[in-house]
Amino acid sequence: MFKGIRILPRQTKINFVKLRFMTYLISSIFVFGSITTYFIKGLNYGIDFRGGVMMEVRTSEPADLSDMRTQLGSLGLGDIALQEYGSPQDVLIRVEQQNGGEKAQMAAVQLIKDTLGTEIEYRRVESVGPKVGEELVSNSIQAILWALVAMLIYIWFRFEWQFGLCAIVALAHDAFAILGLYAVFGLEFNLTAIVGILITIGYSINDTVVIYDRIRENLRKYKKKPVLEIINKSINETLTRTILTSSSTLLALFSLYFFGGEVIANYSLPILVGVAVGTYSSIFLAAPLLLSFKLKVRKDEDPDMPDFNKIGAEKAAKS
Amino acid sequence: MVYIARWRIILVLLVSLAGIWFALPNFFSKKDIQSWPSFFYNEQVNLGLDLQGGSSILLEVDLKNVIKEYLSATVDEMRRSFRKEKIGYVGLGNNNKEIHFSLRNIDDQDTVKKLLKKLMGQDAVIDIGQNGKVTAQISDDTRKERLKMAISQSIEIVRRRIDEMGTKEPSIQQQGQDRILIQLPGVDDPGQVKNLLGKTAKLTFRLVHPQNSSSTVKSRVPLGAELIPSDEKGRGSTSHYIIQKRVDVSGEMLVDAQPTFDQNGQPAVSFSLDAKGARRFADVTRKNIGRPFAIILDNKVISAPVIQSEIPSGSGIITGNFSTAEAKDLSILLRAGALPAPLDVLEERTVGPDLGADSIEAGKMATVVAIIAVLVFMLLFYGPVFGIAANAALVMNLVLLFAALSLIGATLTLPGIAGIALTLGMAVDANVLIYERIKEEVSLGQAPMSAISVGYARAMGTIVDSNVTTLIGAALLYQFGTGPVKGFAVTLSIGILISMFTAISLTRVIVLWWMKAKGSTSELPLIK
Questions:
Q1: Which chain A residue shows the shortest CA-CA distance from B444?
Q2: CA-CA distance, A178 to A184, in Å (whole number)?
Q3: CB A203 to CB B477 under 8 A?
C-alpha cells in the first residue's frame, strides 16, 4: 500500500544554530534596509491611509489612457494617476487628497463622473477623507501592538519570558520584512498590507510556538544536554512538519494569487511573502535567539507533559 | 480490539451533519434555495459590499455643533428669563464652551445662580465674581449625555430617511463615538442618499419683520430679528430677508408631509401639523393677515407667502419653485424629522454589482483550486488512509466555517477570503503535527495503537499552545481593530477553533476505523 512520500531523510541533523550569526546578519541587513528605505523613500500610501479618490472604471472599448489623462488633468484636481488594471478596458484612476476636507473630496468624485460621462461603467468608487486615514494608521498600529503584547504575556506564562521575548523579536522582524517589501518595491500600502501583516504574524507565531514547544519538551527530557544541541535537535525534529505545513499553505496562497483575480491577488502577495519569511524567522531567528539567554526548566512541571525519564524507566522495568 | 468511544463517534457525526445542514445553502444559488422545502435551513453567509456590490458611507456627526446650538438656545432662554425676573445684565453671550455675562447688580447673584441651575442642570459649573462677572458651563456628565443623545437621535433620523427612500436591507450602525456607518447593498450611485443626508432639515415658520420692506437697509438688523438668506429660485429679487427670531411653528410639530402640486400645477409639499402646531398656526395666521410668513429650512428662506386668511386646519402647502424630485426629497426630509447636528461624509466606497460578481467568481475559482491542490498534496505525503482522514478534516473545516459564519451572521469580505486561506493552512498544520508525532512514536518502537494514542496526546499540547497564542492575538485584534481587521479576526478565530475540533476528533475516528477494520496490530499505513 502507498504510504506517502518521504520528503526528508529519517533523522536530519542539520546544524541550524551554527548558521545563526550569518542569519542574524542577513536579517539585520534586511530589517535595517527596510527601515532606511522607509525613511528615505517612505511608503507609497494608498487612499486608505492618505485619503483621496480611487475609481475603477471599465470602458466599452480598449481605453484611451492619454485622452482620459488630458481630460481629467484639466480639472485642476491635483495629481491624477491612471493605470491599466487587469485588462485594456479597465482603468484605475487615483486622485490625490483634495484640499478643503471631506466635502471637496466628494465634489471631485462628482466632477470626474461628469467629465467621463455615463457610458463608462463605474466598477468601484472609493473616496476617503483625511481624518479616516490618520485614524486607520494609529488604530491598526495600536491593534497590532496590543496583540503582540498579549501573545508575549501568554508565551511568558506558558514557557519562560525568554521565549516570549525571542518570539516577539522574530515577529517584529517579519512585520518589518513586509514593510520593507512595500517600501522597496513602492507597492501601494493599503488595508491589504495591514491584513498581510496580520496574517504573517498569525502564521509566524504559530510556527514559532511549535518549535518552542519541542525545545521545552527536549529541555525537560535531556537535562544534561547543552542548550545549543537541544535547539538544533528540536528544529530538526519539527523540520518535516515545518516544511509540509508551510508548503501546503503556500500552495493555497499561490492558487489565490494566480486564480483569484486582481483584488484577491493584491491580498495574497504580502501573505505569500509573509508565510515564507515567518517560516524562516521561526527556524533561524526565534529558536537560535534563545541561546542568548540562560534557559532553565521550570521546577513545577506541566501536569499535561509526561515525564520522559519516568516513562523510560517504566518501560525498562516492564521489559 | 480497537476501541472507539461511542460518544466520540456520535459527536463527530452530529457536528458534521449539523455543519453540512447549515452550510448547504451556500453551495447553491438563491433561486435554487427558494424551491427547497421550508424546513430546510436557507440562510446564506452575508457577503460584504466588496463582494455583492453596493455603497457604504461613513458619516460623522458634527458634535461641536450640538453643544454650540445648545448653548445659544440656552442664551436665548436666559434672555427671556432675565427680562421676566427684571435682572440687569450686559454682554450676554457664549464662546461655544461657556456662557458669560456681567450682572448690573451683584445682589441678583443668588437668583441668577438658581436660574442657571434650572436651565443648565443642577451640576452646572457656575462662577460669579465680586465684580459681577458670571461664567457658566454645563458639567461633563450633561455634556456627554447631550452628545450621546445627539448620536442616537441622528442614527434614528438617518434610518427613517433611508427607509423612506425604499432602499432594501440597509444597515445603519454606530461606529466609534461619533460615526455612523451606512451600508446599502445594491446601491451603485449613492448620490441621492448623500443629498438626503447632507441636510439637517430644520424647518421653522417665522414672521418676516415689518422693516423688511425696503431691501436697502438690511445692514441694520432690528432687535429680535435676524438676516436670513433666501433660497427662492428664479423669481426672488431679494437675496436676504429680515426674519423675526421668534419661532411660531417648527418642524417637530409636523405629523405628515407629502409631495403634491399647487393650484398652478407646480410641485409643492403639503404638510399637516399636530394639535399644538395647528393651534399656533391658526393664531399666527389670524393675527397677521397681510404679512409675509416665511418658511425656513436649514437657515434659508424657501418662500415667504403673504397670509391671505386664517388657516385653522393646521395643514397647508409649501411652494418654492421645486422640481418634482426636490418636492419628493423635501417631503421625505420633513417626514423623517430634523437631524440634531449636521453630518459630514468622511468616507464613501461603492462597488458596482459586476465587480462584486467577478470577485465572487474569481474567489470561488481560486478557493476550489487551492483546496484541490492541498488535497492532492496531503494524499501524496501521507498516503490514502491518513491522507484521506486529513482531507476529510480539511473539507469539513470549510463546511463548518461556512456554517458558523452563517449562524452567527458574520459577513464575508475579501480579507475574510484571505483569512480562509490561513485557516486552511492551520487545519493542515494540526494534522501534520499529529501525523509527524505518530511517525516519531513508531520509530521509537511504540506499537501501532499506542503510537496513535500517544501521538495524538502529545501533539495536542503543541496544537493547543500554538493555536491559543494565535487566538489571543486574534482576540486583541478584534478588540482594538476596526472594520476589516475585525472581520479578519472573527474568521481566523472561528477557523482555529474548528481546525482544533476536526483534528482531534474527525481524523482520529477515521484512522481508528481503519485500524479496527485491519486489526490493531497491523502496521500503520504511514511512511516511517
A1: A312
A2: 10
A3: no
Q: B511: how many CB neighbours lie within 10 A of its CB? A: 26
Q: What domains, with CATH codes, occur in chain A?
A: 17-43+132-309 (1.20.1640.10), 52-128 (3.30.70.3400)
CA-based end-to-end distance of chain A = 32
Query: CATH assignment of B6-53+352-518, given 1.20.1640.10, 1.20.140.10, 3.30.1540.10, 3.30.460.80?
Result: 1.20.1640.10
* Integer CA distances (angstroms), A212 to A42, A156, B123, in order: 35, 12, 58
CB contact under 8 A, B370 and A256: yes
Which of B431, B453, B462, B492 to mutate against chain A (most A CBs within 10 Å)?
B462
Smallest CA-to-CA distance from B113 within B132, B94, B141, B140 is with B132
- pLDDT 10s digit of each residue in chain B, 528 long? 577 788 888 989 999 999 999 998 988 888 888 888 888 888 888 888 888 888 999 999 888 888 888 888 788 788 878 888 888 888 888 887 888 888 888 888 888 888 888 888 888 888 888 888 888 888 888 888 888 888 988 999 898 888 887 777 888 888 888 899 999 988 888 888 888 888 888 888 998 888 775 554 556 777 778 888 887 765 555 678 888 888 888 888 888 899 999 888 889 999 999 988 899 899 989 999 989 899 998 888 888 888 888 888 888 888 887 888 888 888 888 888 888 888 888 888 898 888 888 888 888 888 889 899 999 999 999 988 899 999 999 999 999 999 998 898 888 888 777 777 778 877 889 999 999 999 989 888 888 888 888 999 899 889 988 889 888 888 888 888 777 777 778 888 898 899 888 887 888 888 888 888 888 777 888 776
pLDDT in tens, B462-503: 998 888 988 888 888 888 877 777 777 888 889 889 988 888
Distance from CA of B140 to the nearest CA of A (A): 25
Distance (Å, whole) CA A183 – CA A131: 23
Partner-chain contact B362 A264, CB within 8 Å: yes
Query: Whole-angstrom Cα distance, residue B316 to residue A3?
Result: 87
- Full-model pTM: 0.77
In CATH terms, is domain B198-348 a member of 3.90.1150.10? no
CB contact under 8 A, B428 and A245: yes
CA pair distance A157, B422, nearest whole angstrom: 26
> Taking the domains of chain B in order of start, what are their residue ranges?
6-53+352-518, 71-133, 198-348
- A223 contact partners, CB below 8 Å, separation of at least 6: A297
Of A22, A168, A126, A155, the closest CA to residue B349 belongs to A126
Whether A139 sits inside 8 A of B344 (CB atoms) is no
Show which of residues 67-86 on chain A sit within 8 Å of chain B, judged by CB atoms.
none
